[in-house]
Amino acid sequence: MTEHDFDVAAREEKKRLHDVMAHVHAFGEAAPEAAGIIHWGATSCYVTDNADLILLRDGLGILLPKLATVIQKLSDFAQKYRDLPCLGYTHGQPAQLVTIGKRASLWIQNLLMDLRNLERAKEDLRFRGVKGTVGTQASFLQIFGGDYGKVEKLDEIVTRKAGFDSAFTISSQTYTRKIDLDVGHALASFGATCQQIGGDIRHLAMSKQMEEPFAKDQIGSSAMAYKRNPMRSERMSSLGRQLCNLSLNNVNTFANQWLERSLDDSAVRRSTLPEMFLLADALMILLDNISSGLVVYPAVIQRRIDEELPFMATENLIMAMVDKGASRQEAHEHIRVLSHEAANQVKNHGKDNDLLERVKDDPFFEPILKDMPKLLDPTTFIGAAPQQVEKFTGDGGEISLALQKYREQISSAEAAELHV
C-alpha cells in the first residue's frame, strides 16, 4: 500500500459513497489478480467491526499501563504522607482527623477499581470473526460447498491472526453493541474518578492545604497576577465529565438496534468511540502530571487543625476527667458551656478559638492539666490511618499485587508534560 492507494480510495469513496467498497476497488487496482475475490463472502462489518474490536483491545492496552503508572505515583505520595494528620471533612464541614496519605489512598482505591474494570473490559473482548451478512455464515458455507468444518477452521484462523483467543459463536451483522456499552462504561467510570479527584484537589487548594503542580513561569490569571488557579484539576474535572456523558451514546445505540442490525449505530460510533479513548488518554496525561508534583503545605494544614482541634478534643477531655473520678455528665456540661462561649467568640467577634484556654482557666479541669499536651496531640486522633496506608501501599498489599504485571512499563515511564 502506498499514499497513491489512499488517494484512489478517497476518489472511489466520493464516487460510490461507501467506505468499504471504496477500499475494495482501491485494493483491486493495487492487486488486479486478486480483484475478483476481494471481499468474497464478506460484508462491510466483517471489515469494520473486526477492525473496531482490534482498536478497542489495543486502545485499552495503551491506557492500562498509563493508569498503573499513575496509581504507583499516588501510592508513593500516600506512603510519604501516611502519618501527616489533616482535617477530614464530611458534609463539607470539618470532621475527625485523617492523614494526607489516607485521603490519597481513597483516590487510589477508586483508580484500582478503574484498573480492574478496564482489564476486565479488555479480557472480555472476543472477535466477531467470519460470520457473513447476518451472522449465519451462509456465504462462507456456500464457498466451502457446505463443509461447516472448513467454515469453522477459517473463523479460527482469522481470529488467531487478529490476535484474539476466541470469537463470538453468535453474532448478527455486527458484534453486539453491548461491547461498546461495557467498554464505554469502564471508561466513563474512570472519567468519574478523575472528576472526583480533581474536585478534592480544587477544594484543598481553596484552603491552601494542597496544590497541583504550578510551573515557575505559569500564569494563573490574565487579570489577577497573584492567582494560582488549579487549571490541571479543573481541566481534569471538565474532561472527565465529558467522558461520562459520552457513554450515554453507547447505551442508546445498543438499546436502539433493530433485529439483526440498523445503521443508525454507524455515525455516532465513529465519533463516540475514538473520542472516549482520546479523552481517557488526556485524563491519564493530566493525572500523571498532577501526581508527579502534588504540593503539600504542612504548616497550613496544622493551622487548620489548630482551629478545629479544640472542639474535636472535648471527648478526650471528658474521658480523661472520668478517669480522674469526675462525673461524666458534669464534665460534659462544663465542656458544653465553654464550647458555646468559645464558638460565640469565633462566630460573632471573629476571634480565634479559645476553648482550650477556657478549659485551662476552669478549676474543674485542674486534675488533667498536666495531661493536656498528650490529650491534644493530633497524632492521637488519626486512628489506624498510617497502618492502613502502609498495608495498602506496602509490599504484598493491594496496590503491589494489582500492578505486578505492569512493573516493567512503570519503571520506564516518564513524567507527563503539559504544553498548554
Describe this structure in words.
- With 420 residues, the protein is mainly α.
- It contains 17 helices and four strands.
- The strands form two sheets. A two-stranded antiparallel ribbon has the order 1-2. Strands 3-4 form a two-stranded antiparallel ribbon.
- Helix 4 packs antiparallel against helix 7, helix 7 packs antiparallel against helix 8 and helix 8 runs antiparallel to helix 9.
- The longest helix has 37 residues.
- 33% of the residues are buried.
- The mean pLDDT is 90.
Radius of gyration from the alpha-carbon trace, in angstroms: 31 Å
- Report strand %: under 5%
As a percent range, the share of helical residues equals 55-70%
Helices and strands, in order, run as: HHHEEHHHHEHHEHHHHHHHH
Give the number of DSSP strands: 4
- Give the CA-based shape: elongated
| Distance separating the two termini | 36 Å
Largest sheet: number of strands, sense, barrel closure:
2 strands, antiparallel
Assign the structural class, choosing from mainly alpha, mainly beta, alpha/beta, alpha+beta, or little secondary structure.
mainly alpha
What is the structure about, briefly put?
By secondary structure, the protein is mostly helical. Helix content is 63%, strand content 4%.
List keywords for this structure.
17 helices, elongated, two-stranded antiparallel ribbon, mainly alpha, 420 residues
SSE order and pairing:
Blueprint: H1 3-16, H2 19-30, H3 44-80, E1 85-90, E2 93-99, H4 100-123, H5 138-143, H6 148-161, H7 178-206, E3 210-211, H8 231-255, H9 266-291, E4 295-296, H10 298-312, H11 314-323, H12 328-349, H13 355-361, H14 372-375, H15 385-393, H16 398-402, H17 407-412
Antiparallel strand pairs: 1-2, 3-4
Helix pairs in contact: 1-2, 3-4, 3-9, 4-7, 7-8, 7-9, 8-9, 11-12
